[in-house]
Design a protein that fits this description.
The chain is an alpha+beta fold and 479 residues long. It is 38% helix and 13% strand. Strands 1, 3, 5, 6, 9, 11 and 12 form a 7-stranded mixed beta sheet that branches. Strands 2-4-10 form a 3-stranded antiparallel beta sheet. A two-stranded antiparallel ribbon has the order 7-8. A hairpin with a 2-residue loop joins β7 and β8 (202-204). It is elongated, with a radius of gyration of 25 Å. The protein binds 2-acetamido-2-deoxy-beta-D-glucopyranose (NAG). Residues 35-37, 277-278, 281 line the site of 2-acetamido-2-deoxy-beta-D-glucopyranose.
Amino acid sequence: MLLNFWVLLLTVNCNAVNQVPLAASDEWNLKTFPSPNATGHLVFDTVSSLLQHWPNTKHHNGHTIVTGTIPTGTLLYHGRNDPNIPSAREWAATDSEFARIFCYSDTSVSCWLLTLVVTRPLRLLYFDGSSAAKRPEGPMDTQDLFTWGAVRPERATRAWEYKRLDRLCDTLGFDGYVRQIYPSSSRRPQLTDTHFRMQLGLLVLILGSEVMLCSFTDGVQTQTLARLEDEPGFWHYEYAFIHSSTWHDHYPGETRIHLDLTHLVSLYDTALAPSLVSSRYGQARRDHRVLGIDERDARAVLARVQAIPLHPSSSGIDWQALFHSIRDRYATRLEALQVVLSENSPAQRAFVLIQTLLAPYRLYSAVVPPPSRSDTAWAAPVFRSCATAHTLFAESESIQATLTASEHLLLTAARETNREICRTLVEMWAEGVISSLSDPRLPRKWQEEVKRLMDWLGWDAWTKCRPACVFPVRVPFAL
Ligand SMILES: *[C@@H]1O[C@H](CO)[C@@H](O)[C@H](O)[C@H]1NC(C)=O
């Protein structure tokens, strides 16, 4: 069955290649940059970053709203400094290390840890970004749309938390809301603007995922309530939490929450929220906001979320795997290419790397006989082969008919992202084929191109300490 499927794909692919005159089509012009207003790469990156701490800290203003479930048997935790089990709506954490930092207040140090177990699948709404960060500059924008019907930055405070939870629970009928938090309290040094904490030469990010539960009894059950011994106060008083935070930094992130990408809603969807195109124009990605959305678009977003059915659609496409297969192909090797190009060496080594990156798409017929043209238009068939590799299967009418509106958005995101990667690489490769690799202008030009591409993609894999950070396991103090 599987084999037949692939044979079918190959057939589709060959037919398409035979039918369309390649180089003549402007569609495969290697000089055409993506539109500055295109958002496919932003959808691609936000969707492939869902439920992962690191990318959602780097870009803390969320743009995605997606339903998910927490399966039966999942444990959730709530920490407090008294033995009272909450009867009303409250927060729960997916890791106990995160929950117990809320045990402590300025007046009390006794720690009661409540462990809950999920007794039926909980249906949740997830807001991406650092959506529990009570800061006015954007992390709560998407929630605001659902809570107040408009973005209200002045309500990004603790004082509004329970009103917010009540509104969300009463209006949309989910069992709860999933958010990512970087907590701040009087006992914690404030995070800097970039939310990095450079401490003792170590890069420390402290983050957690929380589930704001609409009921502490319906769908969850108390497993234990226990007073715990104090945590050791060395290396840092939140040592265990710092560790637990890193478990979910990168893909697959928080695996206990299963998302329904087939009904995902993105504020980067320019068909759904066209009013945001102009407010994003010229802004750095970190400053993209939902503030500025017009009333019509805000209503459309609400309507889309209210119409999300209980179960995922049945196209059967694993979008997360598809997105990550593209990321896997390019993330490390683009970084390697950047390093090689920064070494001030001739273009040969970089060219070899580019050849390997494009290996499955470098058609024999494109280079034999050797291209005689001094421009790179001859490489269009290679560009096309690379750019369509991951999404061609979904262009067929039978698959198109099964896709939801959200899946069309995801398909476009994969297509646009992969296309720009291929365009950049194929252009460099084609230049390498027709130029002298000892020309010193080539590596300089390629270096700029690779930087532009990596900035445009904005993947979290590339935001890290160089050289690598020391993992926070050592105890730097004399005990
Ligand atoms: C991008 O959006 C801005 C703001 O809406 C608009 O002025 C500009 O013409 C758009 N550019 C393209 C290429 O569509």
